[in-house]
Sequence to fold (437 residues):
Amino acid sequence: MGQWAGYLQLILDGAVVTIKLTLMGSALALVMAFLAGLGRLSRFAPVRWLATAYIEFFRGTSIFVQLFWAYFVLPLFGFTLTPLQAGVLALGLNVGAYAAEVVRGAIKSIGKEQYEACTALNFNRWQGLRHVILPQAFVLMLPTFGNNAIELLKASAVVSLISLSDMTFQAQVVRAQTGSTLFPFLTILILYFAIACVISFAIRGLERHLTRGLDGIRS
Amino acid sequence: MEWDWAFVIQILPTLIEGAKITILATVLGYILAAIVGLAIAIVRRSKNKLISRPMGFVAEFIRGTPLLVQLYFIFYVLPDLGLTLSPLVAGVIGLGLHYGTYTAEVYRAGIDNVARGQWEAAKACNLNAWQTWTQVILPQALPPMIPALANYFIAMFKETPLLSAITVLELMNQARSIANYNYRYIEPITLVGAFFLVISLISVVGLRWLERRYGRID
Fold:
């Protein structure tokens, strides 16, 4: 039993890396989602094209290929990234592209009368977006953002293949050292599921918090 | 580092070999996912909570954990329990189970969308459960699901590079072995990216067509 405690510690160290990666990747994804999502709704055609190109590119190629490209090909152009940076960059940009479509869909679903109200209050575009449209749209985005964050958590397992010592990597280390397969893999499956549950629980809590007092107003 | 077309020509046949395996794995995995998903959806509808609840938990669990780890589980743990699978078979099972939990949700939504009157009509016509499903419910439920199912087909296609982690010689693995052997990463990895991008862009057009053809809700 004593030896397993040591190996469990190894896996928990990996879990910390996985959580760090998920948080940092989600932060980047959130920024990219709003940049690209709002970019696709821009008045300026070149901005729209740029945002569309970003979204189609990152949704069209697999996260695995993007990660390898960031880690192995970018250094050849002079950008050398640590595995953690490459992981955060690839995960954030990939999931950000999916989340950008969520941002766009949520903003477009806000009724026309809200925009008219902004005009009536003499808000400029930014003020209208900031004070009227986004507060309503953000609540609509939240559940899907939660799913996106869980997708990011799951996708983060591939960073083990560029030698970043996340949970999956540590499980492979334990497998190599002990020859036991059931213990490491079952443990990390349960841990991944637990983290996913925490994410969806946190998002539900945030949603309740943000919609407090809105019952009956929102349909 | 320069892009070298001669090197591209030289590695192309190997990459095409890999692409064949990628496509084979996607098609087989998807067939499995379509069947598994339907089974999960039907079991979860069971009135017996002792059957539907555990099934729901298993599906949630599979959906909440990474495909890569599931592939490792199938590839490394099952042989210890006496079931040795070839890498490709393990990969197809992994893809099929993982995406089966996603297609199950599509089936569930599609089945829920069939009007109650249809169930009642089936009962009024004295059809048994099998006849009700195959002759009344599924023929109506399936066509509107086609776009969403196709969507997961594309998503799964983009996940197949993960199979390289369990030594399936698909496109990504071929590209990596070429890259490691020649110590040139730029061409193989970029070509793999381009391959996925081209297929995805084409399939987006196909998906739009499917949505127009089947996705109408009337």
Chain B has one domain: 5-214. Chain B touches chain A at residues 1, 61, 64-70, 72-73, 76-77, 80, 158-162, 165, 172, 176, 179, 185-186, 189-190, 192-193, 196-197, 200-201, 204 (CB under 8 Å). Helices of chain B lie at 5-44, 49-64, 67-80, 87-112, 116-124, 129-159, 171-182, 186-214. DSSP finds eight helices and no strands in chain B.
